Amino acid sequence: MTTATIRPGDRRVSPVFLGILAVTAVTGWATWTGFAAQPGVAVFLFVTAAWVVSLCLHEYAHARTALHGGDVSVGAKGYLTLNPMKYTHALLSVVLPVLFVIMGGIGLPGGAVFIERGRIRGRWRHSLISAAGPLTNVLFAVVCTAPFWLDALDGVPADFRFALAFLALLQVTAAILNFLPVPGLDGYGVVEPWLSHGVRRQVEPFAPFGLLFVFALLWLPAVNGAFFGVVDSLLDALGIHEFDTYCGYELFRFWRDTDGLCSVSP
């Protein structure tokens, strides 16, 4: 087992992450004020940047929890800097989740941090490390939906409301899907420490394909309809109507012709 220490630079927030935050802030402002000539472009950039921010926070939560659980190697790997380029698959960490959003309006996970599980002692700690990521999506969803369930939307421009509703949908779908007990997803990581060694060995070969399996299932109309039925019910309970998320997705896909149902800023 290797040893590692946490240096001050290992915790320093990456300029890459700060840049993504800046894009989120600027495009959020452009969406709010109607500054952009094409509001759909501003919405696309705002939602995409905010989605990548949530991905970074998701993986940071895994790494930070692992650090407190005993894996000090996460610092040297750069996982505590919130830099998505430090993840196990840097390209897939950003590109794949964004493609999932564009293709189906679904918040599926992308990048991953490598935790040295041999450093972690106790099944509860292993489960908590896996749960920390999707719990971050839950927190992000609470923040996104707060203006709706607090009835604090007076004066909020329609485009920004639609964008926020669609971003909330992504966080809710990400939380639900991540908690599925499917090999390769965080939900399986939560239950894996409690399974027998034989079961874990039988399931292990399927882990690399778990995410693709879930995505393929969601392309089936029956599964897709049932899944989004649950998502829409949760969002409706939080004050977000299906019309808001629909218009957010329509604005997000600015390159497509709209059907005119949504109120879009001139």
Automatic annotation (TrEMBL):
Q: Give the highest taxon in the source lineage.
A: Bacteria
Write down the InterPro entries for this protein, in alphabetical order.
Metallopeptidase_M50B (IPR052348), Rip2-like (IPR044537)
Q: Where are the transmembrane segments?
A: 16-35, 90-115, 127-150, 162-185, 206-228
Keywords (alphabetical) are: Cell membrane, Hydrolase, Membrane, Metal-binding, Metalloprotease, Protease, Transmembrane, Transmembrane helix, Zinc
- Quick check: keyword Membrane in the entry? yes
| Single GO MF descriptor | peptidase activity
Membrane topology annotation: Multi-pass membrane protein
Cofactor(s) this protein requires: Zn(2+)
Q: Hydrolase: present as a keyword of the record?
A: yes
Mind listing the GO biological process terms from this record? proteolysis
Membership in a protein family: Belongs to the peptidase M50B family.
- Record-given protein name: Site-2 protease family protein
